[in-house]
Amino acid sequence: MNTNGNISNEFLTKAEQAYSHNPSRIVAGSVIQNGIDAAARNQQSLVQMQQVFSDEIDTLDITNQKKSGRCWIFAGMNVLRYHMNKTLGFKDKNFELSQPYLMFFDKLEKANYFLESVIETAGEAKDSRMVMWQFQSLMNDGGQWDMLVNLMKKYGVVPKSAMPESYHSSNSASMNTILINKLRKDGVTLRRLAAKGATETDLRDAKDEMITEIYGMLRTFLGTPPQTFDFAYRDKDNAYHRDLNMTPLAFFQKYVGEDFIDDFVSVINAPTDDKPYGKTYTVKYLGNVVGGKPVVYLNLQAEQLADMAKQQVQAGSPVWFGCDVAKLYDRDAGIMDTGLYDYNTVLGTDLTMTKADMLDYGQTVLTHAMTLMAVDVREGNITKWKVENSWGDEVGEKGFFVMSQDWFNNYTHQVVVRKQYLTPEQLKALEAQPIELKPWDPIGSLAVSR
Questions:
Q1: Measured between alpha carbons, how far is 285 from 114 in angstroms, rounded to an integer?
Q2: 40: enclosing H helix or E strand
Q3: Residue of 168, 269, 368, 413 marked catalytic
Q4: pLDDT (average), residues 131-147
Q5: Residue 227 in contact with residue 250, Cβ under 8 Å?
Q6: Annotated catalytic residue: which of 78, 150, 389, 410?
Q7: What is the C-alpha to C-alpha distance for residues 73 and 79, in angstroms, rounded to an integer?
Q8: Which of 71, 269, 288, 410 is catalytic?
Q9: Which residues of 221-301 form beta strands (DSSP E)?
Q10: CA distance 116 to 126
Q11: Cα Rg for the chain, rounded, in angstroms?
């Protein structure tokens, strides 16, 4: 390039000469005709990533979030339904808890959470980074484990038969677009009322009317959350069981229990300079239920996350985990492996980044939640994992994926494990006041993959 930084003809000539001597040019025709993934695919990865594991949990039927970003709810309900299956022993493997039920109240609570944050920041300039972030980052389908806990404790859970899918629970884009439009309008209204001197009471009265309208919109989009329902099932011995006139909270308390979900904690791996290991973190304005449990993470090394998850799977309990699903994976084959594609050789470059740099500069972020169902351990070392996805049975191996341990280290950002797998020092760290991070910090991302 010349001194002013422009791409000159002379520079283009040199770049073409450099490419002509680059061995990667040999496969250019294959890339052009078949795409980079086909040209760079490593067949050895396909051989190694087989669905055979040393320790495996018996699986139920695969679930399907369809065209929605409810992966975090599906993964959470999968953890719960396996817990219920352990105690109840379902004859049918297609039992599900209702994801639309929790989606309804998540949307309602997120609307209230957003408008409360608007009231709190009403005195800030509209072009402040905080206000701009608030109005840009609202009402998607995504969430975090602690947000799910808030919903279950407040609203309970119900079988899917009590609140099945609607069109918009399975196809949420247009619903979200309209809800975002409504909330932005309402947020502007609250800011203008505050600028005219409205009291906090006046602002909350106005907000209550707005949330009432949101509730009605959700009823139209998603249907009516049941107040009571009947629950019936047959166990593995074909014995019939029935509970009549159950409330969602009574169902949750009887068949799941607060003690069960309170036993889980979120552990992350964020090896960035600003997040020392062994500390707990939270993210400002990350949540859904006003006054609910804050989202809290304990930051540990990737190997520690893997060891905790391994122990839980070996004990027969699935692990909710959050990752960057679209990196180095084959959706159809159901493989997640850093060795799956050799882009560096095919393109004659080096794409390698550390996990810290990827997080700091936006190359990776948590995008999807799933459950770990099996682990393969050889001579004491973890080699791969079986992953239960929520994309239906037409992807992967009838809906299940296989993930290499190296992929886990690079692109798994969070696991939710029982407290018994933490050391006394780690449990003590969880009791400390968490360090509050900015709303736009990468660990504040939500599991929202479609």
A1: 8
A2: helix 36-40
A3: 368
A4: 95
A5: no
A6: 389
A7: 10
A8: 71
A9: 229-234, 240-246, 264-268, 280-283, 297-299
A10: 16
A11: 24
Using DSSP, state whether 262 is helix, strand or coil: helix
pLDDT at 217: 98
Tokens encoding 267: 């552990």
Integer Cα distance of 19 and 256 in angstroms: 61
Q: Please state the separation of Cα 152 from the chain's center in Å.
A: 17
CA-to-CA dists, residue 136 to 109, 181, 192, 445, angstroms: 18, 11, 18, 13
Percent share of the chain, pLDDT over 90 = 94
- Cα 318 to Cα 421: distance, rounded to the nearest angstrom: 14
**Is it the case that residue 1 has pLDDT exceeding 70?**
no
pLDDT of residue 379: 96
Q: Quick check: is 323 catalytic?
A: no
Rounded distance, CA 375 to CA 415, Å?
14
Q: Residue 202, class by beta-carbon neighbours within 10 Å (0-12 exposed, 13-18 middle, 19+ buried)?
A: middle
Cβ partners under 8 Å of residue 379, min gap 6: none
- Reference 359, options 278, 297, 444, 283; nearest CA is 444
The pLDDT assigned to 2 comes to 59
Residue 289 has pLDDT above 90, yes or no: yes
Could you tell me how far CA 434 lies from the centroid of its own chain? 21
Per residue in 386-424, pLDDT tens? Answer: 999 999 999 999 999 999 999 999 999 999 999 999 999
Q: Which secondary structure element, helix H or strand E, spans residue 36, and what is its range?
A: helix 36-40
Separation CA 296–CA 442 (nearest Å): 14
Name the pairing type of β-strands 400-404 and 335-336.
parallel
Q: What average pLDDT is seen over the chain? A: 96
- Cβ pair 298, 257 in contact under 8 A: no
This model's pTM is above 0.85 = yes
pLDDT score recorded for residue 65 = 98
By CB atoms closer than 10 A (0-12, 13-18, 19+), residue 222 is buried
**Is 245 an active-site residue?**
no
